[in-house]
Design goal:
Blueprint lengths: L5 E3 L4 H6 L1 H10 L4 E3 L7 H10 L3 E2 L2 E3 L7 H11 L3 E4 L11 H19 L4 E5 L3 H4 L1 E2 L2 E2 H8 L5 E5 H6 L4 H8 L5 E4 L20 H7 L5 E4 L8 H13 L6
Parallel strand pairs: 1-2, 1-11, 2-3, 4-5, 5-6, 6-9, 9-10, 10-11
Antiparallel strand pairs: 7-8
Length: 249
């Protein structure tokens, strides 16, 4: 899938719970062409069928269960969804990024998962929060140290807002990681812990510079963790922003 904007479905979780088809229909009507489930195990066959009927592709998929007894079920669910990008969002130990030794163990876990995922035709990616950047090892962000320890087949889905909250110069990080970043989570807001998110272009994030730094064809996945207003209105404005000259330097 190209960089046509997609939506992480956590953004519309309440609408999905009320009426999945209607919620996805609204995304399609806004001009989105891709969606990213936040838990692959939640009815993957049904979600894929509904999405495809509405002209939406499953661009990638998260699961919280890759480091549990449900690992293989989760991998199979991602394959059922029709994407080859399986994203680790949670499930690692709390101290996974606190020292070089912890990073080595984290890399071993992700590399082993990637080897297992290959049997399902999947690639494993890691989605960051803020601690991976707030933690530094020998003057470098812990996530970038981790990158050196990982098998190159493990990629990163950089959540740009969380990276900024952790103190990163996000465009510079993306530039350094290069082709290992085939997917971006795009949020906007005041870059303050706990603050609600807003439409792209309305907050303090350097979104245009982030997009310019990203590899060609990287997925642009819009997400609002929380919102004070109509989340679909924010998604509509974000879609318009990504199509505008303001998003291009």
């Amino acid at each position: 899938m190209s960089s046509s904007p997609a939506v992480n479905l956590w953004t519309i979780r309440d609408a999905l719970a009320a009426d999945r088809r209607a919620a996805l229909h609204r995304l399609a009507d806004l001009g989105y062409r891709g969606v990213e489930p936040f838990e692959a195990l939640d009815d993957p066959a049904g979600l894929r069928a509904t999405a495809e009927d509405l002209g939406l592709a499953i661009c990638s998929a998260h699961s919280h269960r890759f480091f549990s007894a449900d690992r293989d079920r989760a991998l199979e669910a991602v394959a059922t969804l029709g994407t080859d990008l399986a994203i680790v969002g949670t499930g690692l130990p709390d101290d996974a990024f606190t020292s070089r030794g912890a990073l080595a163990r984290t890399a071993d876990s992700l590399n082993a998962l990637a080897d297992r995922a290959a049997g399902y035709g999947l690639r494993i990616g890691y989605h960051n929060y803020w601690s991976e950047f707030a933690s530094e090892i020998d003057g470098r962000h812990a996530l970038e140290v981790l990158a050196d320890l990982l098998d190159p087949k493990v990629f990163f889905e950089i959540d740009c807002y969380w990276a900024a909250l952790g103190g990163a110069d996000v465009p510079a990080v993306i530039d350094r990681l290069g082709e290992r970043v085939p997917a971006l989570h795009l949020k906007d807001g005041p870059i303050t812990e706990g603050a609600p998110h807003v439409a792209l272009g309305r907050g303090a994030m350097p979104t245009a510079r982030i997009l310019a730094a990203a590899p060609a064809g990287a997925l642009h996945i819009v997400e609002l963790q929380t919102s004070d207003g109509d989340v679909f209105a924010a998604l509509a404005e974000s879609r318009a922003y990504l199509s505008s000259s303001a998003a291009r330097l």
